[in-house]
Amino acid sequence: MTRLKLSLLAFLLLSCFNANAEFNINARTAILQDFLSGEILYEKDADISIYPASMTKIMTAIVAFDLLDRNELSMDDKFIVSEKAWRLSTAGYSSMFIMVGDEVSVKSLLRGIIIASGNDACIALAEGIAGTEEEFAIMMTAKAKEIGMENTNFANSSGINDVDNNSTVRDIMIMSNYLIKNYPKYYKFFSEKEFTWDRTGGDPIKQGNRNPLLYKNLGVDGIKTGYLALEKYSLASSMMRNNRRLIAVASGFDTKNDRSRQSAKLLTWGITNSSLIEITKANIPIAKAEVWLGKKNFLETYIKEDIYKTIPKGQKRYLKVSILYNGPIEAPIKKDDVVGKLKIVYKNEVYKEFDLLAFEDIKKLNMFSRLLKSINYLIWGDV
Hints:
Blueprint: E1 2-5, E2 29-34, E3 40-44, H1 57-69, E4 78-80, H2 83-88, E5 103-105, H3 106-114, H4 119-130, H5 133-146, H6 169-182, H7 184-187, E6 194-197, E7 205-208, E8 220-228, E9 232-241, E10 244-253, H8 256-273, E11 274-280, E12 287-292, E13 298-302, E14 307-312, E15 319-325, E16 329-330, E17 338-346, E18 349-358, H9 367-380
Parallel strand pairs: 12-16
Antiparallel strand pairs: 1-15, 2-3, 2-10, 4-5, 6-7, 8-9, 9-10, 11-14, 12-13, 13-18, 15-17, 17-18
Helix pairs in contact: 1-5, 3-4, 4-5
C-alpha cells in the first residue's frame, strides 16, 4: 500500500466539543453547528420537544422557495387575502397588516413573513399555494421528513398555538442548514432589517426585522425568532465571519434580552474556541498516483465532496491525513474509478475514510510499448 503524506491536510477534528463542561447558556435547549463541516460544537438537551413558534416560518418559506426553483411559482404571482388571513392581523399577533380582498405578490408575502413575521402573510401564502392552510401544513411536514427532521410535525404555517406543531432545536438546525445551503439567493431576505407594506386604506407600515442579532456587529445574517407563552423565547440564528458560518438554535429563554445575549454568547463561543480547516474541495486534483503500463506515468486523483473539519483551538497536532493506494495502478483506468482512500487518523485511530477517485481516463500502452517498458523494468527496475 503506497502512502502519500499531505502536509496540506495535517489537521484534525475532535468529535466532541462538549468536553468544555464549564460553558453553558441559559436556555432550556440549544445546539450550535459549524455549517461547512457539519460538526456539532455544542448541544444542550437538543432532542427534547419544543413548540417552534415563529421558527415554523422557516419551513413556510422553504416550501415556497422549492416551488420558485421549480418554476411552479413566481415572485410576481398574486394571491387574494382571505378573511381567515386578515383576522390574524386584528388579533394581536405579529402581522403584515394585509386586508381582505388584497391581491398580494408572493415576494411581498415572503418579505412580510420573513422580516415582519406576519402570521396573516403566512396564511395568505399557504392558501394561495395549497388551497387551505391545512393542506399546506401537510406539505411542510412532508418536506421536513424529506430533509431529515425526524421529530417534527407542522400543524400550521405560522407557528401560533397548536399542540400538534412541534419540533426540536436539532431539527430546526437541520432546517436552517438546508435553507442556507439550498436557497442562497432567497436567504438574503432573512438579513433585511426592515420591510414597508403599502397597505390598503392607510399609511404604509414600516416594520423592523425581529431578529435582534442583525443589529449587532457580529456578522449575523439570519434567521428567525419565536415566542409562545408556553415555550417562551426562541431564536434560530446564523453568523458568517471570515468565510466561516455557524448556525445556532435555542429555545426556552426567559426574556427577550436573554434570547439576544445568550444567542450571541453561543455564536461567539463557537468562533473563538474552534477553527474550521479545509481539507480539500470537491472535484479538484489533490494528489498524484503512479501508473503502470499507461500512456501517462501519473494519475491525478480527487474526492467527490468538500471535506472540512472543525477543531478545538490548539489541537491541530493530533490529526494526520494520508492518501493510500495499491500502486503503481495498472492501466487502463477510467475516470471516477476508485483507486484508493483518503484516510483521516486521530491519535492513531482512524476517524474517517473517503474514496479516492481517478480524475481522468488513462489508456493502456500498445503491445510494443508495454513490452519495452516491462523489459526496461526487469533490467533497471525503472517503472
